[in-house]
Amino acid sequence: MATLGLHREFLPQYAKLEKTVRDRVDEVFAKFAAHTHAGVHLEKVTGAKDSRIRTIRITGFWRGVVAAHDSGSSYLLLNVLPHDKATEWARNRRVTENKLSGGIEVRNDVALATATNNFRRLDSAPSASSPKLFEHVSDADLGRLGIDDDIRTVCRLLRSTDELDALGNLIPETQYDALAGLAAGMTPEAVWQELAHNHLPAEEPRASTAESADTDELAAAMKRSQGYIAVVNDSEELADILEWPFDLWRVFLHPTQRRIAEHAPYNGPARITGGAGTGKTVVALHRAHHLARNPALPESSILLTTFTKNLAEELSRNLDVLIGDPVVRARIEVTNVDVIARRHFPQQHGKSSTIIDRTDRLVRWRRLIRQHDLDLPESFLDQEWRQVVLAQEVTTAEQYRAADRRGRGKALAPTLKDKLWAVFEEFTAQLRAEGYRTFEEVADAAAHSLRAQPDKPYRHLVVDEAQDLHPSRWRMLRAIVDRGADDLFIAGDTHQRIYDNKASLRSLGIHVSGRSAKLRINYRTSREILLWSTALLLGERVDDMDEGEENLTGYRSSFRGEPPETASFTDKPAEIAGIVDRVRGWLATGVSAETIGISSRTGQFGKDIAKGLEAAGIDTAQLGGDAGQAGVRIGTMHKMKGLEFRCVIVADVGARVVPMPSAITDESVDPQQHQQDLQSERNLLFVACTRARDLLCVSWHGQPSEFLRPVLDVG
Ligand SMILES: Nc1ncnc2c1ncn2[C@@H]1O[C@H](COP(=O)(O)OP(=O)(O)OP(=O)(O)O)[C@@H](O)[C@H]1O
Fold first, then answer.
1. How far does residue 102's CA lie from ligand 1's centre (Å)?
2. Which Enzyme Commission number(s) are listed (predicted)?
3. What is d(CA 378, CA 362) in angstroms, rounded to the nearest whole number?
C-alpha cells in the first residue's frame, strides 16, 4: 500500500487557492490517500535536479508538485502552483535526507548555488572584516549536527545572523534549526542534545541506510520527518488536514513539541516553559487531546484550565478545531480557575461569597491603619496579607511570626509582626461577617473541600499560563486530581508574569524536576518584533517557578518581518488621531478588523481609542467580549495575555502611565517589592508587544516610558 506524505509548505499555498481549485486539489490528492491513483499521470520534468520530483495536472492552469518513489509505493505532496511556475519549481528542487535525523529535506539547488556565489563575492570584498558567524564551531561539530557539505560551504561565509536569516528559506529546516541555535548562542553540545532528543528517540533508532535502500527510502524518510511532513493514512485524514489549512499547529508540531505532547505517561507533574509564542498553549492543547484519546476515560475527566475567562474560551475554541471526534472532545472540560474554585467552594460557607476587589480592600486597610496607628501604606498590608498570610495559609500569630517572608524586602520586628497579625485578624473577621472573600480565599476553601473528597472530579489537569497563579489556586488545583501518572501538566512563562502571584511549585508539593522541557522557537512573531520586545526585558532576572532562574537562551523566531514602529505624539488627541490613521491604513491594505488588536495600560484610554475609531466609521469590539463580533479588538494590556493578532498597537506607553504609578510600591516602603512591581509592569509591556504576528506599533504622547529606553536608544 502506498505511503502519502504532505509537506508543511504545501498548506499555506493550498490556503491561498480559490475554492474551486482547492476542490480539484482535494479530489486529485484524495486518490493518493485512498490508493486509487493508479491511473493518475505524473509528468517528469525536463532537466530536473531530482528525477523523483514530478508534476501532476490539477486544472488546465494549476499543477501539483509531488516527489514519488520509483516503485510507486510512496508520494510526497510538495506544492501547488500555476503550470509554468510548477515546472520551474520542480526542476530546481532536490529531495535529500538529513545526515543526522534521516528526515526529508527539500532544497532549491539553483538558488542555493547562486546565494553561495553571492556570499563568496561579499566575503572577498575588502570591507568584509567582521568575524565569521560560525568561526567558533568546528567542521566536525557541524557535521555532527547534520550540516551537509553544501550548507557548510555557504554557512562558513556568513558573518551575521541577518545573513543567516536571509538564507533561511534555502537551508533545509533541521539544518537551519541547528544553525539558528548556534547563532543564538547555544553550544554545539546543547544543540546536539536538542536535535538528538528530537530526532533520535532511543526507542525508535534510525533505520540504517542499507536497510532503507532495499525498501522505500522515501517512505522511510517521510516517517522520520517530524515537524514538517505529515504522513497521511487515508483520505479522511487528508480531508481533515486540508479543512484547516491555516492552522499548521494542528498537524505540524515541532519535534520538541510533539515529544512533550505525546510523551508516554509522565510519572507525576510535568511542565513546559518557553518564551512568548513558542507554542506552549499548542502543546497544552495537544497534550489534553493525547490524554483524551484514552477510551477508558469518562466525559469531562480532563480539566484544561487557565487564569482568565477569555483565555479559557480561546482554549475551548482551539480544542474544537483540533479534535474532530466529539466523544474524545467531550472528555475535556475547559474552564478558568476561579470558576472551578467557586464551583468547589464548600456549601457550609454559604452559597458563594462576594469577591472583594483590590480597591475595596485598600479602603479597609486604610481604615485599620488609622485605627491601629500603623505607619505603613495600605498597599504594603495588602501585599503582606496576600503574599505571606494567604500564600502560606497562615492562621495563627505564631505561624505568622515564623512565616517565610522571602520576596518581601522590608524586615519586620516581632512586635510589629504581632501588631500586624491583629490587623489581619480583624480584617478577615470583617470580611467574613459581611460575606466577602478574595479569590485566593475562595480557592483555599475549595482546596480544603476537595482534599476531603475521596473521588476527585478530574483524572488529569492541564494548566496554561501557569506563571500567574497564586499559591492558593495551586493548592486547589493540586487537590482536584489524585497524585499519580499524568496528574498535572503545566505550561507557563515567568517572563510573562503580570500579576503579583509568585509561587514555587516545589514548596506546594508539585515536583516537576526531570519532567520539565523548554521550547525555544517562536512561531508567532517575526524575528524583528521578537528581538525588539526581548530588549525590553534586558537585565531582568526571573525565577523559573521551581526555585531556579529562568533564561531565554536560544529563544528565536522562525521567520522574518517588518521592524516594529514607534510613534510619538504631542498630546492624547493627536495620539488617538494617529492610531485611527494607522488602523485605517491597515484596513485599506486588506487587513481584517478582527485581526487588529489595540491595548493600553488603562481601560479608559482604550475606551477613548474606541470612540475615535467609531467616529471614523471603524467598528470596534472589546477584548473578552463576544468572539464573533466584528471590529478592531481593544482592551487593556492585561486582557492581551495569551492572545495574538496580525497587527498590534500598544498605545499610551508614556512616562506617566507605564509603569503605572499606582501599581508600584514605593522603594522606601519595600525595595524588593518595588523591583518586583517594576518587573511585572515591564513584563506587561512585553506581553502586549509579543501579541503581534506581522506588525507592531508602540505609541505614546509626551515623554516615552522609561521601559522603552533600550529600544529607543538603539533606534
Ligand atoms: N508547530 C507549530 N507550527 C505552526 N505554528 C505554530 C506551531 N506551534 C505554535 N504555533 C503558532 O504559534 C503561535 C503561538 O503559539 P502559542 O500561543 O501556543 O504560544 P505560547 O508559547 O503559548 O505563547 P504566549 O506565551 O505568548 O501566550 C500560535 O499562532 C500558534 O498557532
1. 26
2. 5.6.2.4
3. 6
List binding-site positions for ATP: 274-281
How do residues 629-638 score in pLDDT, each as one tens digit? 899 999 999 9
Whole-number Å distance between alpha carbons of 619 and 314? 21
| SS3 assignment, position 453 | coil
Nearest CA to ligand 1 atom 3: 249
What is the residue with the minimal CA distance to atom 26 of ligand 1? 276
CA of 486 to the centre of ligand 1 (A): 23
C-alpha cell at position 613: 475609531
Neighbouring CB atoms inside 10 A of 550's CB total 21
User: Distance between CA 702 and CA 704 in Å, rounded?
Assistant: 7
Q: Whose CA is nearest to atom 8 of ligand 1?
A: 279
- Please tell me the residue having the least CA distance from ligand 1 atom 9: 279
525 C-alpha to ligand 1 centroid (Å):
9
State the distance between the two ends of the chain, measured CA to CA, in whole angstroms: 59
ipTM confidence: 0.99
Confidence at residue 422, expressed as pLDDT on a 0 to 100 scale: 96
Cβ burial, residue 575 (10 Å; 0-12/13-18/19+): buried
CA nearest to 479, candidates 438, 515, 525, 448:
448
Q: What is the pLDDT of residues 102-157, one digit of tens each?
A: 999 999 999 999 999 999 998 888 776 788 999 999 999 999 999 999 999 999 99
Residue 406 cell numbers, joined: 522571602
How many angstroms separate the CA atoms of 209 and 483, rounded?
Answer: 45
Q: State the Cα torsion 184-189-195-199 to the nearest 10°.
A: 180
596 three-state secondary structure: strand
Q: Please state at what angle helix 309-322 crosses helix 280-292, rounded to 10 degrees.
A: 60
What is the whole-number distance in angstroms between the Cα of residue 555 and the centre of ligand 1?
13
- Nearest to 103, CA basis, from 258, 271, 220: 220
DSSP element (H, E) containing 27: helix 19-33
Q: What are phi and psi of 369, to 5 degrees?
A: -60, -40
By most ligand atoms within 8 Å of CB, the mutation choice from 273, 524, 537 for ligand 1 is 524
Calpha distance 402→388 (Å, rounded): 11
CA of 524 to the centre of ligand 1 (A): 6
Binding site: which residues?
A: 274-281
Quick one: how far is CA 614 from the chain centroid? 32
* 153 half-sphere exposure, CB direction, 13 A CA radius: 10
CA–centroid distance, 284 to ligand 1, in Å, is: 10
Helices (H), 34-160: 83-92, 109-124, 139-144, 149-155
Stretch 506-523: mean pLDDT: 90
Does residue 212 register a pLDDT over 70? Answer: no
Per the CB < 8 A criterion, the answer to whether 304 and 464 are in contact is yes
Three-state secondary-structure class, residue 525: coil
CA of 278, closest atom in ligand 1:
21
Ligand 1 shell residues, CB under 6 Å: 248-249, 252-254, 257, 274, 276-282, 493, 496, 523-524, 642, 644, 690
Q: What are phi and psi of 290, to 5 degrees?
A: -55, -45
Protein residue closest via CA to atom 11 of ligand 1? 523
